[in-house]
Amino acid sequence: MLRVLWLFAALDAVLLLDTGMLFPRESSSRELKELNGLWAFRADRSPNRNQGFESAWYKSRLAETGPVIDMPVPASYNDITQDPTLRDFIGWVWYEREVTVPTRWITDDGLRVVLRVGSAHYYSVVWVNGVKVTEHEGGHLPFEAEIGTLLRKDPTMPCRITIAVNNTLDLHTLPPGTIQYMTDRTRYPAGFFVQNTNFDFFNYAGIHRPVLLYTTPKAYVDDITVVTDFLDDTGLVRYSVSVKGTTSATMKVTLIDKGGHCIVSSNQASGVLKVPNVNLWWPYLMHENPGYLYLLEVRLKASDASSTSEDVYTLPVGIRTVNVSSTQFFINNKPFYFHGVNKHEDADIRGKGLDWPLIVKDFNLMKWLGANSFRTSHYPYAEEILQMCDRHGIVVIDESPGVGIKDIRSFGNASLTHHLAVMDELVRRDKNHPSVVMWSVANEPAAEMPPAENYFKTLIKHTKALDPTRPVTYITDSNFSRDKGAPFVDVICVNSYFSWYHDPGHVEVIPLQLNTQFEDWYGKYKKPIIQSEYGADVVPGLHNDPPVMFTEEYQKVVLQQYHGVFDQKRKKYVIGELIWNFADFMTTQGITRVVGNKKGIFTRQRQPKAAAFILKERYWRLANETGTLPLWTKYPCPL
Ligand code: GCB
């Protein structure tokens, strides 16, 4: 009974946003039309980057306003052409695509037609046939607009979608940045400016995730929230369905197992479903059958005087719990040790654009490596990636785009308000993913600054109120002992680069310094610790023995030095290790980066460096010690 009450309490946490953001899925009541492919594209190169708005480029076909080029969607635009000014472009770019919408979508005024953008970086304004339908601040998260009403106003018009996207970062965006104008005319031409940022990845821009149209009936399932628990072998699924477009509807909610059998159903919009002989959702390498998902099918029937409609939405549900003690992290009440990676959404040519071959390759590499988890450094990843995590049992620390908050002006009210809104959007999108076990609100903020205390106290409290079922953290650098936000986190996540940014070349200091790091922080805060980053750059193919920085040998020995300490501390309070980084990735140009950050254990093209084999051996050994290998594997690791 107590469990059930707790589940109710957990679900009462209401998101401040007034609409849901369910992943678009086809069903017997919902159709979907992907708009991926080639769009017309034009960068606004006018000095104030505002000509597109002044001349209303959205009012006519983009090709009529000036020269356009082909631009693939989804993709970053930066690496698509040979033009360095487009690679480094800052300001508004314009995308346009004309779509033919099925006639019945227009004639049937019982349908909603929704235009959805998976993500666009950074600020977007969207028009349909010259009429503004929405705008959205922030990359990495989806936004939508209902456009059926507009299309029906003039059914003879085609559906011309124009999206203007601006990648400019300022003190109040997430991540923050500043624009610096260079006014010394002896050194810079007129109008010269640069975008400064405090993060270590290329500020790729454009429409990064799928754009699509989908339909729902007028009375529709707007959102579903699921919180799970179990008692002995009975699973508990507390759900709540929010409905829009009707006040009188009937509902049937059914939980279906993998074999397609209906396990339990209800006629209520919210309640607790009891699942006998539950199959829990387990992480990869913790159970023989990881990533077990049920389906929660919601059928909503609504009628008015003239007609009856049905909306059907099906949500995958994994039943699992997450808890934290002062020394351990538990999934389904069993200790869980994170042996995983940090990633980036990053690849040749497509930049941060969603790319299925890359996604599947990365999952195959993570499984080959024996990784059971990753952190979405340093922003929310595509929902398609989280769905893969749910299915494969890869555990996720889900991070907001709060990276590079270093300027004291970025701790003010405007920044905090936006950061809170981003957390609302992030939790709204990702709350139902069993793979997501922790929220990370930021990476390496200047947490020693006085305003950081109130900022993080508010931010973490807010995130916990949004989702009381998951721990909250932010990722700290080695200033942790002066860290003003640390008292509020549930798990301490610390990044350190001993023998790299400090004492370069001296790998022999790693054990002592790492030991001190762990003992200091555990001693002060008595919270479990994840080594959330560690690593070293390698130019692939560069060799030297004895090891020298930037060689494959050096990366190997750095890792081995860290691992010795992890092995001592994981018996006490260290609950995970995440290598920086899974793969090499692009950064802005600078004297410490040789065509990007080279701390990957795989190259950007996903070929292993020598250290990948060290990590693979270790992760499979850890899995063998702490978990249960899947049926298809044999230690030390599958071929
Ligand atoms: C860090 C950052 C990460 C960088 C990494 C590095 O602490 O969190 O974004 O890429 O160090 O390689 O310097």
From TrEMBL:
One Pfam family hit: Glyco_hydro_2_C
Keyword annotations from UniProtKB, A to Z: Glycoprotein, Glycosidase, Hydrolase, Lysosome, Signal
InterPro entries, A to Z: Beta-gal/glucu_dom_sf (IPR036156), Galactose-bd-like_sf (IPR008979), GH (IPR017853), Glyco_hydro_2 (IPR006101), Glyco_hydro_2_AS (IPR023232), Glyco_hydro_2_cat (IPR006103), Glyco_hydro_2_CS (IPR023230), Glyco_hydro_2_N (IPR006104)
EC number: 3.2.1.31
Example GO biological process: carbohydrate metabolic process
One annotated Gene Ontology cellular component of this protein: extracellular space
Highest taxon of the lineage: Eukaryota
Localization per record: Lysosome
Biological function: Plays an important role in the degradation of dermatan and keratan sulfates.
Name this polypeptide is given: Beta-glucuronidase
Taxonomic source organism: Poecilia latipinna
